[in-house]
Write a structure and sequence with these properties.
Helix content is 71%, strand content 7%. With 167 residues, it is mainly alpha-helical.
């Protein structure tokens, strides 16, 4: 690898890690401001996002979106149901199928979270011209496609959630 290539790799690695960590910290701070009595964790908010407005959704589709297994999701859904953010709906045709839907309280929490992200993204790109925004979107699409293919590879190779978390 050329020195210039190594520079870019190192720089982007550092930026990706920094952005990831700062997004999580920013999200935690925003949740403290918007969450009712700090009753939701970051992972619970992410679960609400995955349940989403187009609910009800099956447990397996939510787990797939969150890149976790259904048993891990069940624990999160139990907590969210006890807190009044989601509800379980049994499929009438097949009682084994459980669908998850947001309650009114869950929809309100999701709306606050979405407002936070729209505000953050709007502020982050405010000083960019349209060309810079298009380039950023193309670059982010490229990164997203790369990570999707990496995850697909891991799944095809039989690498599970726990093995990926160890790496």
């Amino acid at each position: 690898m050329l020195d210039k290539d190594m520079y870019y790799v190192k720089k982007l690695k550092k930026q990706l890690l920094s952005i990831f960590n700062m997004v999580i910290k920013t999200e935690e701070h925003a949740m403290r401001e918007t969450a009712e009595d700090n009753e939701l964790s970051v992972s619970e908010i992410h679960t609400l996002v995955a349940v989403g407005r187009k609910s009800p959704k099956t447990m397996s589709s939510i787990a797939q979106e969150l890149l976790i297994n259904v048993s891990t999701l069940s624990i999160a859904i139990n907590k969210l149901e006890k807190k009044g953010f989601v509800t379980r709906i049994r499929d009438e045709a097949d009682r084994r199928i459980v669908r998850i839907s947001l309650t009114e309280k869950g929809a309100e929490a999701l709306a606050r979270h979405e407002q936070f992200y729209f505000r953050v993204v709007d502020e982050a790109i405010r000083d960019m011209d349209n060309g810079q925004k298009r380039l950023l979107i193309r670059s982010m699409d490229h990164m997203l496609n790369f990570f999707e293919s990496q995850l697909s590879s891991c799944e095809a190779d039989g690498i599970g959630e726990k093995e990926m978390q160890k790496n």
